[in-house]
Write a structure and sequence with these properties.
This protein has three helices and five strands, in the order αβββαβαβ. It has about 140 residues and is of the alpha/beta class.
């Protein structure tokens, strides 16, 4: 019996022993199969019924145009600055609130468009969009 020698039978094993891993997985599988049907919601609630009919109410679209000279047009009718504020206030009070589509000539001063947007925001119009021509 020699203590410092290495026998050929004492080599390190290069393979993983899968048998214990498979045993653990089978035990876990059995536990889950048994416990899942037992789990249920303990509180029974009578939920209210609601109709699922979609609302097809489309908001009105208002076209605000600004020509090259800076004149405002409310749905193709010329309006002054004071009339524009009255129209925007009336539009903001409606339910559902209409969408404001701004169409501006490319030669108009930015100040006129910014004035219309600021008035719309100040008076409570929330849905504002810009209309452009595709190239």
């Amino acid at each position: 019996m020699a203590f410092g020698t290495q026998d050929e039978t004492d080599e390190v094993m290069n393979e993983i022993n899968m048998t214990p891993l498979v045993d653990v997985m089978l035990v876990l599988l059995i536990i889950f199969i048994i416990t899942v049907p037992v789990m249920q919601h303990a509180v029974s609630i009578d939920l209210p019924r609601a109709s699922n009919q979609p609302e097809n109410i489309k908001p009105e679209t208002i076209r605000l145009s600004v020509d090259a000279s800076g004149v405002y047009f409310w749905n193709d009718a010329a309006v002054s600055d004071a009339e524009l504020n009255l129209q925007l206030a009336a539009a903001a009070a409606r339910t559902p609130q209409p969408e404001l589509h701004i169409r501006a000539d490319k030669a108009v001063r930015y100040e006129r468009v910014a004035h219309a947007m600021a008035a719309a925001q100040r008076l409570g119009v929330h849905k504002i969009g810009f209309i452009t021509d595709p190239e």
